[in-house]
Amino acid sequence: MKFFVDTADTKEIIELADTGLLDGVTTNPSLIKKSGRKIFEVIEEICGIVDGPVSAETVATDHATMLKEGKKLAKISNNIAVKVPLTVDGLKTCKALTGDGIMVNVTLCFSANQALLAAKAGATFISPFVGRLDDISEDGMGLIEDIRLIYDNYGFKTEILVASIRTPLHVLEAARIGADVATIPASIMRQLFKHPLTDKGLKAFLDDWEKTGESIL
Ligand code: G3P
Predict the structure, then answer these.
(1) Per residue in 141-196, pLDDT tens?
(2) Ramachandran angles phi, psi of 90, nearest 5°
(3) Which residue, of 28, 62, 71, 136, is most buried by count of CB atoms within 10 Å of its CB?
(4) Domain that holds residue 34
(5) Considering the domain boundaries, does residue 217 fall inside one?
(6) Tens digits of residue pLDDT in 60-97
(7) Tell me, what's the pLDDT at 181?
(8) Domain count, the chain
(9) Residue 76 to residues 21, 39, 133, 196: CA-CA distances in angstroms?
């Protein structure tokens, strides 16, 4: 499973990219606002930090304008994935952009039928928002299972990019189901490395090593 980080904070992206385990980045208009920076400047910087897909979202709602925005965003770098919402106009734009060889991440997906339509529109990635479904007592990870089944039934190549992740368990469940990508907030990505027994065990090893008086270097 690929790990993307869900942020427009370049400091966080650099820190995680340095682990060598970061496969891409997703942003959205709210994350751009949170960064306090201009979209073209920050997205260009992010594209220079990671080689993998960097999602940059259109903000128009009509197909013609969304298409113009998508083409302009795609010019930033060859690893741009243009994000469009799961609407009729968004899927028309998805079809047009993928026809031009541009990666498209269809976002704000909340049902399996929506995901089926996005795959038919040629989406590179589909972004179901599991946390926002859980927030209203619906089954976010159940949606991922349904999409995985449907995509495998028909051999769709669209990659399932699990978004709106709230906990490390969302990441675990996504991997169990066979999602292609998880886009993870930086704070949760950092949690994935940690386990108290690892800390405890390492301390015990180093305490014992200290007593040997030995050195490796
Ligand atoms: O990429 C989509 C993601 O940023 C949405 O997450 O926490 O706003 O539901 P959230």
Answers:
(1) 999 999 999 999 999 999 999 999 999 999 999 999 999 999 999 999 999 999 99
(2) -65, -40
(3) 28
(4) 2-212
(5) no
(6) 999 999 999 999 999 999 999 999 999 999 999 999 99
(7) 98
(8) 1
(9) 24, 11, 33, 42
Give 24-46 pLDDT, tens digit per residue.
999 999 999 999 999 999 999 99
Whose tokens are 């976002």? That residue is: 107
pLDDT computed for residue 167 by the predictor: 98
Residue 160 and residue 129 in contact, taking contact as beta carbons nearer than 8 Å: no
Q: Indicate the pTM of the whole model.
A: 0.97
Tokens 């992740």, residue?
Answer: 165
**Nearest Cα residue to atom 5 of ligand 1:** 164
Nearest CA to ligand 1 atom 9: 164
Q: Is the CB of 55 under 6 A from ligand 1?
A: no
Burial of 152 from C-beta contacts in 10 A (0-12 / 13-18 / 19+):
exposed
CA of 162 to the centre of ligand 1 (A): 10
Model pLDDT, residue 38: 98
Q: Is residue 63 part of a domain?
A: yes
In a domain? residue 172? yes
- CATH number of the domain within which 133 lies: 3.20.20.70
Question: What whole-number distance in Å separates Cα of residue 82 and Cα of residue 199?
Answer: 40
Q: Closest by alpha carbon to 42, among 53, 51, 31?
A: 31
160 close to 144: Cβ distance less than 8 angstroms: yes
Task: Please give the positions annotated as active site.
Answer: 83
Residue 102 lies in a domain: yes
